[in-house]
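Bit of a strange request maybe. I'm writing a small parser for structure token strings and I need a real example to test against, not something I typed by hand. Could someone generate the tokens for this chain?
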Amino acid sequence: MPRAGGATPRYSLIIPAYNEEAYLPRLLDTVDAARERYRGGAAAIEVIVADNASTDRTARIAQARGCRVTAVVKRAIAAARNGGARAAHGEILAFVDADAQIHPETFNEIDRVLAEGNVVGGTTGIRFERRSAGLACTYALLVILGIAIRGMRSLRDLNVDTGVVFCRRRDFEEIGGYREERLWAEDVQLLLDLRKLGRKRGQRLMRGTRAKMIFSTRKFDAYGEWHYFTMPPRLVWSTLRRREELVRRYWYERR
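Reply from user aminoacidic:
Good idea to test on real output. This should exercise your parser:
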């Protein structure tokens, strides 16, 4: 997925990846479809895989599919995202995990959202790749939490969500990118930092509504359908105690 004639791309899609040979081809199939559907032309989108010290064929697969590959040695998701951003040439940065699948209208939808002018960045939202009672209850819990947060006057415009995360490169650089000291929830922190920057200019975060990312349920496969009701508090407690064993096992386990 090279840049055409050396032209500066509009988008840089950044994919942090550690031992993702099983999932990366599936994601790249959906990226190809989204590039072909983009009204600005497929050449306006470069794809960067930030290889986070993989020991499998992740880098070779990415190169064979035409992605630019940048090596990131520090084993942290935030560091991988930042490493991909440093290699990017696009005006707009978009971040997606290697086990996800993106919607064919992803880049058109981001264009639509950013065209409003008072938007500093945002997310596409998600839907789970499969259905179950545990996943349905998990989604309902997240929706309820979101409604509760938006009902709080001071947090009404929070608009922190998940999915494909996007912002302008100049704004990403102004806030210093992802905070690499965070081993998890670095994506939430980035959105909070963007929100703070945007509020100074009268801008806000925005959720896309027409191109939801398909969210991988492999954590639910590994830890159980109901584990979101117990795991987040354990991760918070481990982080507060500065004990990283659980965090690293959950987020950085060997693929």
